[in-house]
Each structure stands twice: as C-alpha cells, then as structure tokens.
Amino acid sequence: MNIIIVKYLEIVILIILSLMSDIETYKIKNIIVYPFIIIGIITNLYLDGIGGLFFSLKGVIIPIFLLNILFILRMLGAGDIKLFSAIGAIMGGKFVLYTILYSFLCGGFIALLLIIIRKNAMERFKELYIYLKNSFITSSILPYTDFKDKSDGGKFRFTMAVTCGICISLIQM
Question: InterPro entries, alphabetically (predicted)?
C-alpha cells in the first residue's frame, strides 16, 4: 500500500475521532491523540529510519513551542496543541506549520461568520476590550476565557477549523 495513503488514512481517522470527541465532550481526549503520536513516529521511523524519527519529533515539538503562549492565555486548549502534535508526528514539521496557519485563518473566518449569524459583534468586542484593559492595568497576562463556561456565545469547536486547515494543507502538498 502506498505510504501517502497510509498517512492520509491516519490523518483522516485522527481528525474524525478528534471532532467527535470535541463535539461530544468539549475536549480532545488523550486516548485519541497519544496513540496517533506514537503511530506517526512508528510510521516515519519505519519509512525513513532515524531520519523519519527526527521528522516526526520535529512535527511533535513545533506546536508545543509555537502555541504554548495561547494555552497560557487560555485562548487554546491543551487538547488542540496535542492534536497539532499528533498531526506533526504523522506529517512532519512543515505540514503542521501550514496546518496551524490555515487552521487559525479558518478559525478567524468561522468566528466572523458566527459573529454575523449571532449578531453579537459589540458584545465580543466589548469582552476583548475589557480583557485588554484589565491585562494592561494589572500588567499581567490574564486568562482570556474559561473553557468550562459553555454559555459563552463566542466559543466554537476549534477542531472544525483544524479540519479545514488539514484539508487545505493536504491540497497544497
């Protein structure tokens, strides 16, 4: 079987399971992402030996370093970062960088659509203003949101944006 098909299959299964988990529980469970990190490393190790191992490890580490500040600010959940790491383990560092970029662009588009549909632009901008003002006044980095608060009209499942980012990245390959 062609190895590209194997990697595509791994990515498709990963994102479907992650979407289902996020929609059902508002979390991407470790039982989903950790096995795919291992599968990605094993696949690439098998294909390219030690070079494949480094290819996967770079893909795992890049999201952790790039997205850590968004986790600290509670703008992104740990599950999202682990999902990006699993994607990187399978497809490598360059692919995960593009996927992160496209995911955030798609996330911005989804957020804009939701603001238009929900007609809550003023409420969202007011919340952002208050956050920035409080962060400036206290000279500290405050959490932006509480992920456990499901009543907040500004949230959506980021795995939807990640799915779009993966699709765009796959097309770009």
Answer: Prepilin_IV_endopep_pep (IPR000045)
**pTM for the structure as a whole:** 0.84
CB of 80 within 8 A of CB of 158?
yes
Q: With contact defined as beta carbons under 8 Å apart, do 62 and 93 qualify?
A: yes
Give the residue from 72, 66, 65, 64 showing the smallest Cα distance to 145: 72
pLDDT (tens digit, 9 = 90+) per residue, 84-143? 999 999 999 999 999 999 999 999 999 888 888 888 777 877 877 777 777 777 777 666
CA distances from 154 to 39, 63, 113 (A): 34, 24, 11
Q: Are 88 and 7 in contact (CB under 8 A)?
A: no
Domain range summary for the chain, segments of one domain joined by + = 3-172
Task: Indicate the residue type of 68.
Answer: N
